[in-house]
Each structure stands twice: as C-alpha cells, then as structure tokens.
C-alpha cells in the first residue's frame, strides 16, 4: 500500500491541467452495454475506478481496450452478472443494472460497496426500475432483476439521486414508450451522459433540469465521444492555489459547472478569474477568512468539495460552518485535520471550524476519496512533513495527483507504507 509524504508550506505556481471527469466517464462507459456498435471514448481519466469498470464490462461480455485516455468498446455476447469481487470496490458498478435489464431482461448485480461515507442505499434505482416492469429478489447479497422488456413509466424520485437518474436514463433509452423522471438529478455528469446517449440516437429532453423525458428507441449506435473535464478535480486545484497562498492557472476548468464552488472560494478571500489560458486562481492579499457552506444537489455546493473547502477554512482568519446535507457520514477527514492542529467541532450534520494560524504536519489516514484530497491540501499548507496513508482512495479519483502538483512546485513523494 502506498502513502504520500508531503513537505508543506510551498506556494504553488504555474499551470495545471484537469483530466476527464471520473463521475461522467463511469456511467458513459456503462452505457456501452446499450450499443449495437463499437464506441470510442476520448478524454477518459486513467484511474483505478475506470480500470475496475473496464474489468467489469469485459466480464459482462464487451471487448474493451484502453490506451492513452482513449477507450474503445465493442459489443459481444452479454453475460448479465456483475460479481461481488468487482462491485464491492466501486459503488458505481450498480450502473450496469439499468442497461442489462433493458437489453437482456435480466441482471444479477452484487449490492454495491465503494466509499465508506454512509449507508448509500440503491432503493430509488430499484423502485424506479420496478415501475418500469422489473421484478427484484435479493439472493446471497446479489440483486436479481428480471423483466420481459421494460416499459416507459412516470417516476418521481424521493430525492435527486445522481446514480439513480443515470441508471434510469440508460434503462429508459431502450424501453418501450415514454419515461418521465421527476425530481431528477441535474448534475453536469448526468447531462454529459444524456448528451452521449443523444449522440447515439436516444430521444431525451430536459436533462439539466429536474424533469427529464425519454422516448425509448429500438437501438442505439455509438459515436466517438469526449468526456467532460472533472469539475471536482478542477475545484481541488483551485483549493490548492488558495491553501498554499499560491497562484495557479487551471486548464480545462469547467468554469460554469463550478460557479457555486468558485463563489464560495471568493467568499473565503480567493481571487479567481477566467483568462484565455484557463482559470486563474490565487489567494487574495488579505489571506483566507471564514464563510459558511451547505452541501446540496447541483447547482448547490457539491458534497464532493466539502472536505477540500474545510481544509481551507481550517486556516482562515475567522470561523466557518459547514453543513453536510447529502451524506450522513462525511466528516471522516475531521479527526485527521484535528491531528494536524485544526480546531473543528461536529454536531450532527454540522461542523464548526475555528481557523488557526497554521496546520502542522502529521501522520494521517485517508478514509474516502474526497477526504484524501482534503488531507493532501492540508499537507501542502502545513508546517513540516505530512504522511497521508491509505491513498488507494485517492488513486480511485485523481489521476497522477502528486505528479501534477509537483509540476507546479509541490514536494510530494509516493512511498511504500
Ligand atoms: C454520485 C457521485 C458522488 C457524489 C454523489 C452526490 C458518482 C460515481 N458518484 O454518487 O461522487 O458524492 O453523486 O453528488 O457519480 N440515495 C438513496 N437511495 C438511492 C440513491 C441515493 O437514499 O437509491 C441517497 C444517498 O444515500 C445520498 C443521496 O441520495 O444521501 C444522493 O446520492 P446519489 O446522488 O445517488 O449519489 P451517487 O450516485 O451514489
């Protein structure tokens, strides 16, 4: 197992490029199950979760090749079984459920694992697919779904679920008749999936709003598709500029999809602007000061940036409050930040952060993907050396993070734990 050793206190400076979006690439790759023809995907990030998805797609019968951020898939004889060994490492594996059911009328998928950030049920996926005519049983930890062709339905989600909306978009694209998804997730990654499906012949309207209408078609035929840039990786780099008192130009930064995040960084005292070379981010002259953040579904502040902004708040000159409203167990970075000298108190869904003058390097343990990013940020700003252990979480979601940060002045070493 690897760890990162970070020498803190160096202001970052230079240009850093954002990779393709993990959370857009995952559902789009699963959508290859729906296709009658080969697909070519460009700008696919080189990440552990992508490799897991390709392994799973191969087990499901597709041929997949991956080289230099390009993934080619070819249809094959589909096998509708997603085994536990793969699914347990990545919650997004459940995204094969909708495509398999709509193509084959059956699917056996292990209940998903993934990040330890709460119970994260898939009841909304199941309930919605049942409304489209599927029946489900639970056997040995596997969900077994059957149907004789899915049919369109009017589905109202209890909450906007990103994965649920994506699973249903894919299922409905080849179902019989019209499906209406109400209270659908509006995240840019859902929109990217819808755009890909439309480019393959799907009939979808309303993506990016909370009501999506899908008219099922007989078949889908893929085109070459380029995955959108990763807004959370981009947001993490903005945070790296702010927390180190540095100045970074961020290339391929999806500015409009990050507007809520950028507004909050500006409230914290950062200067962020669009330039012809990318988004320029710097810490303001007066340093960082406190603000309040509440995580919400898009276009609200993303839960996937909560841990990172908290690292900045921990060295702000005044207090901040963070309310986590999406996941119930997403403050696992807090005890580790406290080990580095942060002053944070948690009460239920709320964290109160009293800024300190500086953090101190320490041995810390990453517990989930975004918590790991928060600890790397804290390490970049801290006085002394920080060892971030269990970085396999980080490798699931950030491509070559230490190489990218070292190229703009950071001193990070990857070592065996
Ligand atoms: C996706 C993202 C993840 C992000 C999250 C919220 C991917 C691969 N992952 O996760 O990085 O943090 O969106 O923006 O895109 N819920 C239920 N029942 C369900 C489904 C969800 O109760 O059937 C709840 C969840 O427990 C959570 C909330 O709904 O509290 C949102 O979850 P959801 O949007 O589904 O997140 P994911 O798709 O798993």
In short:
With 417 residues, the protein is α/β, with parallel strands linked by helices. The chain has 2 domains: 2-19 and 229-416, Alpha-beta prism (UDP-n-acetylglucosamine1-carboxyvinyl-transferase, Chain); 22-226, Alpha-beta prism (UDP-n-acetylglucosamine1-carboxyvinyl-transferase, Chain), CATH 3.65.10.10.
Written description of the protein model:
It is a single chain. With 417 residues, the chain is α/β, with parallel strands linked by helices. Helices cover 30% and strands 26% of the residues. It has helices at 22-30, 48-59, 84-87, 97-104, 123-131, 162-173, 188-199, 231-243, 259-267, 306-313, 334-339, 369-381, 392-397, 401-406; strands at residues 2-7, 13-17, 39-42, 63-67, 70-74, 81-82, 106-110, 135-139, 142-146, 154-156, 178-182, 203-205, 211-215, 224-226, 247-251, 270-275, 278-283, 292-294, 320-323, 343-347, 350-354, 363-365, 385-389, 411-416. The strands form six sheets. It has a four-stranded mixed sheet with strand order 22-23-1-24. A four-stranded mixed sheet has the order 2-15-17-16. Strands 4-5-3-14 form a four-stranded mixed sheet, covered by helices on one side. The chain is elongated, with a radius of gyration of 21 Å. The model has no long low-confidence stretch (mean pLDDT 95). The structure holds uridine-diphosphate-N-acetylglucosamine. Uridine-diphosphate-N-acetylglucosamine is lined by residues 23, 26, 91-92, 118, 120-125, 159, 161-164, 185, 189, 302-304, 326-327. Uridine-diphosphate-N-acetylglucosamine (UD1) binds at residues 23, 26, 91-92, 118, 120-125, 159, 161-164, 185, 189, 302-304, 326-327.
